[in-house]
Amino acid sequence: MAFKKHILTLHKILGLATGIVVFIVSVTGCCWAFRTEIENQYNDYKKVTPQSQTFNTNGS
Known about the structure:
Elements: H1 2-33, H2 35-42
């Protein structure tokens, strides 16, 4: 019985470690696949819309 308990504990530890690795690979893969959409969420400030107003150079 002690051998079976050790095997089950080892199986649990290896399963959790493998699950963490798979989770990290999945999250980074998702970020890579949708990187353009993610970048567009914080790159909007770089886009300039043209305006038809004149530029005032005298400071008033």
